Amino acid sequence: MELWNHCENPYPFVPAEVLDEAESVRASLPNRYCDPKIAARLYDEIFDEYRLCDDLGINIVTNEHHSGINNLWAASPVITGVVARLTRKVRILSLGTLVTVRPDPVRVAEEYATIDVLSKGRLEIGFVKSGATEMVSGDANPMRIREREWEAIDLIEKSLTTQDGPFSWEGKFFTHPHVNIWPRPYQEPRPEFWAATSDLPTCAELGRRNIVNTLLFGGYDRTRQAFGSYKEARAAAGMPAPGEDRFSYMAFAYVGDTDEEGLRIGQKIAWFLTVSIKSAPQFAKFQPGNVVPEMAPQAWRAGVSRRPRPTNLDAEVLIGQGQMFAGNPDTVVRQLKEFRRRVGGIKHIIMMTRQGLVTHAEAEASFTRTARDVLPQLQGLPPIDDDEAAWEARRAAAAK
Amino acid sequence: MSGRLQVGPLELEALRRGSGRPILLIHGVDPVNPKAPFLEALARHGEIVAPSHPGFGASPRPDDFDTMYDLVRLYLDVLDALPGKAAVVGFSFGGWIAAELAVAGHPKLDRLVLVDPVGIKLGGRDERDIAHFFNTSPAELERRAWHDPAARPEGVYGLGWQNAIDERMSDADMVRLARNWDALCLYAWRPHMFNPQLKHWLRRIAVPTLLLWGGSDGIVTPAYGERYSALIPGARFATIDRAGHHPELEQPDVFVEHVARFLGSGA
Q1: DSSP label at B22?
Q2: Segment A165-169 mean pLDDT
Q3: Does A175 touch chain B (CB under 8 A)?
């Protein structure tokens, strides 16, 4: 298995009374609450964490969100470009810039090709559909974003792989009469594509296109179902079964010296769910396109009771749901192996560790333990449908 | 009462009432509701034809039908299909469609009534002329759209409809509201509720025109309405007191009086 470090660069420094009063902590919270001096310190700390991960062999994920306390990576290609020069060895995944918000996918392709060249072929390109407050902060029509995303992906792919351009594109959502990016990507034919989704028809399409499917906090059952959809679509199309390298999962993670420490610090990550996703109804359940109209009664009635936001998402509960991996190194190894078994095989685990109220020192300690005591135990795992003990015995016998 | 209207390849949901000269109603946020309190009185002055735009109510929307350009051509088709000269009454977003339609011109369009229309940009680039329909909180939308939200007719929604959701609302009403909201967004998210070119062409409107404005409208203010009116040759402007963005729902009698007087006048 491979491990990835994903930090959203959150900004948990706005006074609680301001957040309680605000209709949303994204899109409409005035930026006077963001102190650029604190932001500068956060960038320094997190880039240092990325350098440490480069030394440790933990890959790096960047993303972007806008106008909110949850994320200060306002432009994934910019941040990824910085990471490309700060690091030397590890893979770098941009997951991703918001192609449903950005007006010209050709520019996105060009930015990614540039990063691929300056990282000498270490870039992986991730796509996200986006939605909700991002449509507001990016003034992007929230209707038909899935169709827009697919057209953007197609145009980006053609931009990255065409070497005898210029070519012309006159699509439904994007037009560009003269596409010819310089530089072209370092990797041939292009960097690996990833996409984040748990939508089953979309997972099926990812399968047909051989794009790495990552889920975010989907838990055991939804993840297995999503990967199943991916596999079935390939089988139905007469394509070879996908390897575990086609599957990825993002969850909260904290590796402590002890289980107690893992849980205690892991608990600080839950801020992400309890505070940083507070949003106003017009940016969420009442946003056009949020659900298909037939599902609106269910989605809207759920709000009638006006339940308070969750405030005590317990780390052990999250672990039980497969949404957090936390404990001492051996415990986390057990959790990850169990997750791999229950979802039917997976290669990439994206750890969200520097999240919420977790400090720089705590994050670096977790990464160091991860590299020393977790990652080695996740190498050379038996095939997913094999019995682990029998496989180990066979491997030991073969080694003699 | 409700029926279908064949327009080219599209079969639209359409409400009809009364008889006589056609009065084409072009709806705003939601299709004209059969329970709307102005319908009976207005139907005494002609035959009301009120289609639901593609994507709204029970009207289908073909995949590539998604712009104001499409809606204007569709309503030119609708005018073709009417039996004689018609008055066109457009509400809010539908007022924008109606203004575009009148700029395009059609031999059967002979009177135009715009009721709190959106559709043009008047203020400076950092001034908002039209409250954002989608990014504004439901409570704020309701406050701006209604003179007295508590007097909203039962089962009739308008802007701020989200605040009307309660345990009594049927699933069918919710599905319709969701379809309407999605379709409105598709047509009008960006630029939000206006066509930057329309302002220059309002001078081409060549039929008698009345602009009616809710005196308490906080979605598009009466001051915007007066400036809108001044761009249309010979247009009359009138406000309706104790009404917001939907004067036809808040003051149905006064609304119908204004429209009837205008339709009956020799203007």
Answers
A1: E
A2: 97
A3: no
Question: Is residue A67 pLDDT above 50, yes or no?
Answer: yes
Nearest-CA distance B232 → chain A (Å): 31
Q: How far is CA A172 from the centre of its chain?
A: 28
CA dist list (Å): B260 to A207, A320, B208, B217:
62, 68, 14, 22
Rg (CA), chain A: 21
- Mean pLDDT of the A371-383 span: 96
Distance from CA of B233 to the nearest CA of A (A): 34
Residue A145's closest chain B neighbor by CA?
A: B186
CB spacing of B134 vs A288 below 8 angstroms: yes
A142 touches chain B (CB under 8 A): yes
Q: Distance, in angstroms, between A217 CA and closest chain B CA?
A: 28
- How many Å lie between the alpha carbon of A183 and the closest alpha carbon of chain B? 33
Q: Mutation target for A interface from B182, B184, B187, B193: give the one with most A CBs within 10 A.
A: B182
Per-residue pLDDT of A222-238, as tens digits, reads 999 999 999 999 999 99
3-state secondary structure of A399: helix
| Inter-chain touch B178–A282, beta carbons under 8 Å | no
Q: How far is B263 from B47, CA to CA, in rounded Å?
A: 13
Residue in chain A closest to B161 (alpha carbons) equals A286
pLDDT of A238-258, one tens digit each? 999 999 999 999 999 999 999
CB atoms within 10 A of CB A18: 13
Asked if A139's CB is within 8 angstroms of B175's CB, the reply is no
Report the Cα–Cα distance between both ends of chain B, in Å, rounded.
31
* Lookup: tokens for B32: 């004209």
Mutate to test the interface with B, among A136, A147, A286 (most CBs of B within 10 A): A286
Contacts of A104 (CB under 8 A, 6+ apart): A174, A176
Query: Are B162 and A281 inside 8 Å of each other by CB?
Result: yes
Strands (E), B8-127: 10-17, 22-26, 47-51, 86-91, 109-115
Report the complex ipTM: 0.95
| CA dist., res. B14 & res. B128, Å (int) | 34
Distance from CA of B178 to the nearest CA of A (A): 5
From chain B, pick out residues whose CB is under 8 angstroms from the CB of A303: 165
Q: Is there a contact between A282 and B186 if contact means CB atoms under 8 Å apart?
A: no
H-helix or E-strand containing B240? Answer: strand B236-240
What pLDDT, on the 0 to 100 scale, is given for residue A140? 97
How far is it, in rounded angstroms, from Cα A127 to Cα A91? Answer: 16
Give me the residue label for tokens 């809606």. B71
Can you tell me which residue has the tokens 């701006």?
Answer: B144
Does A166 sit behind a cis peptide bond, omega within 30 degrees of 0 on the bond before it?
Answer: yes
CB-CB contact of A62 with A94 (8 Å): yes
**The token pair that represents B7 in the structure block:** 């327009």
Q: Find the CB nearest B175 among A142, A288, A293.
A: A293
Helix (H) or strand (E) holding A216: strand A212-216
Taking residues B47-67, report their average pLDDT: 97
Q: Which residues of A touch B184 (CB under 8 A)?
A: 288
pLDDT score for B1: 45
Residue A190 has phi, psi (to 5 degrees) of -165, 165
Q: Which two tokens stand for residue A47?
A: 């880039």
Largest CA distance in chain B: 49
Residues B212, B46, B148, B239: what is their CA dihedral angle, to the nearest 10 degrees? 20
Residues of B in contact with A280 (CB under 8 A): 137
Q: Is A266 helix (H, G, I), strand (E, B) or coil?
A: helix
Tell me what pLDDT residue B2 has. Answer: 64
Burial class, B200, CB count within 10 angstroms (exposed 0-12 / middle 13-18 / buried 19+): exposed
